[in-house]
Amino acid sequence: MSVKKVNGGYVIDFTINNKRFRETIPAPHNKKAFQRIEDQEKIYRMAISLDDKGIADRFPNSKIIQKAFNTECNYTIHEYSNIWFRQKQRNWSHTTIRGYTQKYNSYIKPNWGHLKLTAFKASMFDEWASQIKLSAKSINETRNVLKQIYVRAYNDEVIDRNPTLLIERYKQTHYEPTPFTNDEIDRIITELQQPYREFFQFAFFTGLRTGELLGLRWEDVDLRRKVAHIRVNLINGIEKSPKTTGSIRTIQLHQKAVESLIALKKSDFSKFRRVFINPKTMTEYKNADGLRKYIWKPTLNKLNISYRYPYQCRHTYASMMLTQGKNPMWVAKQMGHVDWGMIRKTYGRWIE
After folding, report:
1. Which one of 14, 104, 276, 283 counts the least CB within 10 Å of its CB?
2. What is d(CA 57, CA 244) in angstroms, rounded to the nearest whole number?
3. Which pTM was predicted?
């Protein structure tokens, strides 16, 4: 059979005169779509066998027809990005889809979306990057999205060359963590009220990522053994498994973290499934934007403490543990890294 189902559509695959022709067509998996693509495959065969370009012209965007009759690629970057996105998004997390969509809609589509795939040149990207006020990290992320679109087009033989391979990565500035001092931690915790006090104390003394903090459930906590099982990551209200196997872990709880949980256990918040609940709505958090904007930032301003993002609580925990002489491999495991390479690179100055 020359037509086969694949994720997101069908593949037409046949050989004539020792030449293989292959094309992926996005379509729903139903009888009507299958019949339409089978009929399309028969027309392809007829056009190629008869060398009839008149028949072939009915499918100007077909990769098979372009290959058989050496016609120019008619896909624009925007048109092919839609194909790539439909076919690949099933394998992506919610945050990946959001990140790719933002980079594409903000930078790729308005600058090059109208161009034919074959019209784009690496110098166009470099010219754009030289003028836009973006961090090297954001430029590299945009480059990655564009590159993936072209890799798919090249692998599908829609284009003969991939110009994005000529775009070099931009050098990213490495920023050292700026952890909080013990005095700053004490002042912040003292200033906050329940349950914000417990949330940030737990963050300071576990080093959990934001999504891991928001996703923590009472069933994941063992106060008797003083451990927590990190099994869930909550991103924009969507519960996901942690991204890497190293992130699925059991951590040892610092006494300060245990005290936070005990305080919450004695409160009305213990009746909820999640450990940390929004006291204003009495529902679980979807993200930490409100915490940062309306609790964290005003507290630092009031205490005249230089502003750092809440994520610096994680950096504070790592530097604190290393300063106390904890084994870097133990710290790496606590923080969800598979080895201590990231610890060495990021927190090297706190390791004796």
Report:
1. 283
2. 48
3. 0.64
